Amino acid sequence: MTLLGERPRTERPRAGRSSAVPAALVAISHGTNSADGQAAITALVEAVAFAHPDLAVTGGFVDVQQPDVAASLGAVRPECAAVVVPLLLSAGYHVHVDLQRETREHDRVTTVSRALGPDERLIDVLVQRLVADGFDQRVRGQEIVLAAAGSSDARAVHDCRTVGALLEQRLDVRVTVGFLSAATPRLACAVTGARLRSSNVTVSTYLMAPGFFFDLTRAQSVGAERVTTPLLVPGETPPAPLVDLVIDRYLEAKERAGLF
After folding, report:
1. What pTM value is reported for the model?
2. The CATH number of the domain where 92 resides is what?
3. Could you tell me whether strands 201-206 and 143-148 are parallel, antiparallel, or unpaired per DSSP bridges?
4. What is the separation, in whole angstroms, between the first and last Cα of the chain?
């Protein structure tokens, strides 16, 4: 397995593998102890499977929950190659290191797709959440703080800043990115700074699902008029743009790797 973005080396299919069986889609999320977060991620994986009944779709986790990556790949039919799609919003350590290592060590033709972000479809969902929580684009002088998990990997931080710039461009409203860990500015500081400039501040939650970081988002958003829900909400149908994005990441990686 090569580094993300390079053409992966794929071995010849072993005897007995059928070239007529398309590569499985293995959706790997971070994992969470939150029951709401678990339900929201499960619903997304199920929606992807429902949208493409011709594909073998399975889920797994890079941390916290089981099955882990090795077990998830082990559950795929022996004759199938696999495309691991990280259900992660930016490409940090988990994407560049953990998933590369764990798929390389597995006895299966496997490739890893790009992370979900940045992508305009994520902006679509962020805007949906903003409007649903009462944000009005027509109000002048307001600001948005994009709440992101944060990473010590500069590439992941850059991805988040790109999403902030795309959201600002879409809405024509000033957007500052605030991080919950590892990177600066921290969310609480970003909210305070926005509040000094504007009396109308909205925190746009750039997280996949409820859990520890969403609880932290609400705790660090003192002074904001509203805090939006994450991209996935338990009990709701996963947004169509997210489902499409997961499938497109699969198709893109499969084509790059030369898999059926």
Report:
1. 0.90
2. 3.40.50.1400
3. parallel
4. 18
